[in-house]
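In the laboratory, one determines a bound structure by crystallizing the protein with its ligand and collecting diffraction data. In a computational setting the workflow is compressed into a single prediction: the sequence and the ligand go in, and a structural description comes out. We illustrate the idea with adenosine-5'-triphosphate.
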Amino acid sequence: MALLELHNLKKYYATQKAVDDISFSVEPGTIFGLLGPNGAGKTTLLRMITGILYPDSGSILFKGEPFDAMKDVEQIGYMPEERGLYKKMKIGEHALYLAQLKGLEKNEALRLIKEWFIKLEMQSWWNKKVEDLSKGMSQKLQFVTTVLHDPKLIILDEPFSGLDPVNSNIIKEEIFKLAKRGATIIFSTHRMEQVEEICDQIVLVNKGQKILDGSVKEVKQQFKQNLFKIGLDSNTSLENSNVFEVIKENEDHSLIVKIQQGYTPNDVLLHYINQNIPIHSFQEILPSLNEIFIQLVEGTPAARQFQHIPA
Ligand SMILES: Nc1ncnc2c1ncn2[C@@H]1O[C@H](COP(=O)(O)OP(=O)(O)OP(=O)(O)O)[C@@H](O)[C@H]1O
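The predicted complex, in structure-token form:
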């Protein structure tokens, strides 16, 4: 049974269709990526899933039952993109305050906070004030306060924003560990490359509508273009054949080829083997989520936001 099901959710702000008839479900134990450009409707969706906003129409089921914010909220940890911390409070006190709001008893909360502070190398911050934290430090504090009560569903809105590569990796590892221990994680971002590394399942939204969903693997397979990278000797002459078209010749003498309709990778290999040309490597090139997204919304402002030249 899905942990979370969204059925035909709609949310308008005046005439702005922020979420326009979106449905999807999230299976337990998955790391689920909610993707889309700025203004796509991700935060509005998350606010409905966490009970901060009511949908104008549609329904949300949590563990198969209609979602009840008052009852279910203890099983949810939500890290919003914006900072939701009290600036004048000390870090340790703040973490304790939020943990108790989530229903943890004081001694248990203190024990867990200490454990997490050690794990994330935050022990020395206990008596610092929130206002003295950098953006990345407060992001770490928000992460700890989100996961401390061991929620079943963890919702992270742009969790890596403001974090340097070392801290991003620390948080990423913790996300993997939480999922391994059985938590379900919804991870919202406009940074597609992060999702490829982290998520099992994705939903892509644009202008309030779902434009794609599935596992990262399925989605990439669906959009693949029969491109392969072949590593050859430096003195191999370049040629097309009826089996493939050479799309690009790289400086390292590898080729990017597109296999023609009706042929298979084995036909490409046979082409070289029959001519006694050594092959050093042979690898399928799958599109990145960024490229898939651009393909889907080509020509729109959202596509331009993601346009880049693949390496
Ligand atoms: N309180 C509001 N009043 C009016 N319009 C809003 C409000 N909040 C969001 N919107 C609009 O709804 C749409 C969806 O916004 P939302 O914040 O959900 O997008 P998002 O995908 O989270 O974007 P980002 O990646 O920039 O955070 C946008 O067009 C936004 O301008």
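Residues 13, 16, 18, 36, 38-44, 81, 190 surround adenosine-5'-triphosphate (CB under 6 Å). Keep in mind that any predicted model is a hypothesis to be tested, not a measurement.
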